[in-house]
Each structure stands twice: as C-alpha cells, then as structure tokens.
Specification:
Length: 505
C-alpha cells in the first residue's frame, strides 16, 4: 500500500490528470464507435508518447485502455451493435432494455458495473499478481485446450429454446474459423484459390458485420422504433437509473462475472472478448430465472460489463510479471515499454518499481474518471435514440466500414463486413442464434491451435490429457455441462411431452 500511495503521488500532477481525462474520453469514443477499439486507440497514440516522459506516457495509454473497454457498452445498448468484441454479450440484454424504454437504466448499470468490475480485477492484480503469474507460466497447451473446449461447450447454453439450431450456428462459426492457413503446419484450407482468404477472416470486421450490418438490414425490413417510450421513461429517471437495492442484489453476479473476467483475462490470447460471453452464460446458469435472460434484465448487463472490465486487471498480470501480453491492448502497452527502454517482466518490479505502482494507481484513478465522464454523459448519450433511423444508420454503417478498413488497411475486411452482415441477416430469418455463431467463430481457432500444439508436444500421445490434474478437472466439468444440457433441454422436455400426452389420453 505504501508503494501504491507513492505511485499515486508521483502520478498526481496537472499535466498527468489532464492527459488521463483526455485519454479516458478518447478511449470511450473509440470503444463506442463500432470498428474502433482500445487497441487501435493505444496504437494511434503510441507515436505521441515519444514527446512525453515515461510517467506521462503510461498515464495517457492506461487512460485509453480503461476508456476503450468501457465505451463499447454505449453502442451495444443503444443500437444493438457492440463497439468491440468485448461488448458482444452486452447486446443480449442491454438493447432489449433500451427498446423497453430503459436505455438510461441500462447505460447506468453498464457504467457502474464496468467500474466495479475494473476495481475487482485491479485488486486481484495488485495483491495476487506474482502468485497468479507463477501459476500461469505452468500452464501448457493441454490446459488451454481444455479451457477453450469447456467454453465451447457453453454454446448449448446460449442457444435459446432450440438447442439444435444453437449447435448448428455454433458449428457454422467453427467452420468459418478453419478457413485459411492451418495453425502449426500452415496448410491452406478452404480458400478456393483466393489469396485474400489465406489468413482467414479477421475477428473485428466479422463481428461488426454480424451485428451492425445485420441489425441495419433487419431494421430496414421491419422498422422498429422505441423513441417515444424511451423519452417518457427518461423524464422520470435520475442518477444512474437504478436503486441501491438493485445494486446490492447484483453482488453475487458481480463477484462471479468479475472472477471469470480476471481469470480469463490473465490467460494469454483469451481476453475480454471471451470473458464477457463465458461470464454471461455462467450468470445465466446460476440465476433463479434463467428464462428471462435475453429479454432485458440488468443481470445480463452486469455479467458482461463487469467481466470484460475485470479482464483488464487480469491481462495486466502476465504483462507486468512475465512480459507476456494478455490481449491486444496489453500488446500495445508492451510496445510502449520498449519505446521507453524498459523490459516488462519479473525484473521490472526491481528496476522500475515506482513505475509499476504508478501504472497501478493510474488504472484506479482512470476508473474513477471513467465513471464521472460517463455519468455526466449518459443524458447526452441517450439522446442518440431520438435521431431518426434514416439519418443514424447511414452514419453507423459508414463508421463501421471505416473502422473495419482502418484495423488492417485492407479492402478485404470491407467484403468480410458485408458477407457476415448478409450471413447474420439470413441466420436471423431462420432463427439461428448469432451469439452461438460468434462463440464458435472465436473459440474454434483457439481449440484447434491448442489441441495441435498439445499433440505435437506429446508427440502424438493423448495420455497427458488424462494425467494432468487441471486438464482432467476442466474436461470433467465440460462433460458435466454437456450431459446436464442434454438432459435439461432434450431428454426432460421429451419425458414431459410424453407424460402430458398420456394424461391427455
């Protein structure tokens, strides 16, 4: 605590505070605009840090990180388009709340629990970083495969009432993730001679297309407007839009989702894009009313936003303790360390201990700044719902196209945006859940990559999967989830249906 207070004292200067305010605001804007992200915000501002001191540089970059992750909830709630992959699950209940006239409340819940989730992850980072880093370094591809496979088994849980359609959508996502060069051996698959498909489909344009373009096409076919309802409800709402009783009632969901976010965050390559979906399913499974998820309840927003923000603290653990970035934004931060002649890893705590605790303090202070900025911005943000759709959606699709292109400066990403938009529209018409497709698309490559690495490491033997304790536990949990889901969603309804027919006869 003494070191943390010392880092905060070194951080508190007029210039640093201004940089953090500017960084948080810019980060929120980057997070809220579909196609942009905290990773892109940090990448664009890295050259700016050449003219700043080390402390000033990390104050700015950390602020961009915090703002960027939280900003994704804005577009996810208001127009059902996640600002980034970290906010996909926020659309499941956030947008239905907005359509039901509770946009202010949904935004308030998202902001507050983004803040609390961030603090949870940072607390774990500050007090448990060394132990968690030592644990993370012992994990091998066997554990990563088991964890990814367990997450993949959750497809059945987010499939809605029809498990078969959910599995179909999930397998479609996995199939699309296999396009391009195979991991490990680099064999080209399913490209049909198209060089552009060699690297497969980029996640960000695919997700934006699946949600943004699809949502616009669905609105064009069947216009939906909740503007009047939202206006009437908003006039009677103050503060964040929800009560202290509701805040306390979400304690269990906050702890569960934030724990998942922190754990998934500190596993390199996972990040908030996976954490928010896994946490959403976990909270749904432990809820007393799982059938209400997806209809517009705050539990779903709490699960998504607290988990993806908690992943910030988790992702910073391997970066600072091991020099291994946990996700895209921390990979950019690793570049910042190199720019300033520093080496992230175990020796950083000894050689630049004050900087480490300054980063800790900056993360905490920026979290408070984020709450203040978004609290005073909610009333302005909600007014976006009053913009006529014929004006709003052309602007949105233009911004999405710019964001998709800017990620890699590649025209193929624009075609990806269009293809996945049309695919998502067709899936919606056939009532195939897009959430399952995205989960399969995100996890398919992780499962395949880690399985092939594990098989290569064991020289073709599958025995390590059944001899390593953590792998066995994760696989056992996976099969329990699968058996329980089959029982609840297939066998039990069939039994009840036969029983009902017998009673009728």
């Amino acid at each position: 605590m003494t070191a943390l207070i010392g880092g905060a004292m070194a951080l508190i200067t007029v210039k640093n505070v201004l940089l953090m305010f500017v960084g948080v605001i810019v980060g929120i804007l980057f997070g809220a605009i579909p196609g942009l992200s905290s990773t892109m915000a940090i990448a664009l501002f890295l050259p700016v840090t050449f003219g700043l001191s080390t402390y000033e540089s990390f104050a700015l970059l950390v602020a961009l990180y915090i703002g960027g992750v939280s900003g994704g909830l804005v577009s996810a709630i208001l127009i059902n388009i996640p600002g980034s992959a970290m906010s996909i699950a926020t659309t499941y209940d956030g947008h239905p709340m907005a359509k039901n006239g509770q946009a202010h409340k949904a935004l308030g819940v998202g902001v507050v629990f983004s803040f609390l989730g961030t603090l949870f992850g940072l607390a774990v980072m500050i007090f448990a970083a060394p132990a968690l880093a030592r644990f993370a370094i012992t994990l091998q591809p066997y554990e990563y495969f088991a964890l990814s496979f367990m997450a993949l088994s959750l497809i059945a849980s987010v499939s809605g009432q029809n498990i078969f359609k959910g599995l179909m959508a999930g397998f479609m996502g996995i199939a699309f993730s296999t396009i391009g060069m195979a991991p490990i051996d680099g064999v080209v698959r399913f490209t049909f001679g198209n060089i552009q498909l060699m690297n497969g489909f980029t996640l960000l344009p695919a997700v934006i297309g699946m949600f943004a373009v699809t949502e616009i096409l669905l609105t064009v076919v069947k216009p939906v407007s909740a503007d009047k309802v939202v206006q009437q409800e908003r006039e009677h709402i103050k503060g964040f839009g929800f009560s202290f009783k509701e805040l306390i009632g979400q304690t269990k969901n906050l702890i569960l989702a934030s724990s998942i976010g922190t754990i998934v965050g500190f596993l390199p390559g996972m990040g908030g894009s996976l954490a928010n979906q896994v946490a959403y399913v976990a909270v749904q499974k432990t809820s007393k009313y799982p059938e209400k998820f997806g209809t517009g309840i705050i539990d779903g927003v709490v699960a998504s936003e607290s988990s993806n923000n908690a992943s910030i603290g988790g992702a910073m653990i391997p970066l600072l303790a091991l020099g291994i970035p946990g996700d895209g934004p921390t990979a950019m931060l690793l570049g910042a360390f190199m720019i300033h002649g520093l080496v992230a890893g175990p020796m950083l705590f000894k050689t630049s201990g004050e900087l480490v605790y300054l980063i800790f303090a900056a993360l905490i202070i920026c979290s408070f700044i984020m709450v203040v900025v978004e609290f005073y911005g909610i009333k302005i943000i909600v007014k976006a719902l009053n913009i006529p759709r014929e004006i709003l959606y052309p602007v949105v699709i233009t911004v999405c196209a710019v964001g998709a292109y800017a990620a890699n400066s590649n025209m193929f990403d624009l075609w990806t945006l269009l293809v996945f938009g049309i695919l998502g529209f067709m899936m919606s018409k056939f009532k195939l859940p897009r959430a399952c497709f995205v989960l399969g698309f995100v996890l398919g490559s992780l499962v395949e990559t880690n399985l092939r690495r594990a098989i290569q490491l064991s020289r073709g033997s599958i025995m390590p999967f059944f001899t390593r304790p953590l792998t066995v536990v994760l696989l056992a949990v996976t099969f329990i989830i699968i058996i329980r889901t089959v029982w609840v969603q297939i066998i039990l309804p069939m039994k009840n249906s036969k029983k009902a027919k017998g009673e009728y006869a």
